[in-house]
Amino acid sequence: MLAMLLLSEGGEGINTSLQGLLFAGIAFFLLMVIVGWLTSSRKQEQAEAGHEAGNSEK
To answer: For the chain, what are the domain ranges?
Structure first.
């Protein structure tokens, strides 16, 4: 919300030329958070599976 206020032009409303860039940046950030979360959970599952496979061979 603060970013939208900073991009506004006085009391006339939001500067629409920068609003699209702001939303694109927010969308990119959220996408990277989701991809990072999925990647980290996948690595943990692979590590657990490798650990169990190593114990069953001994």
So the answer is: 21-58
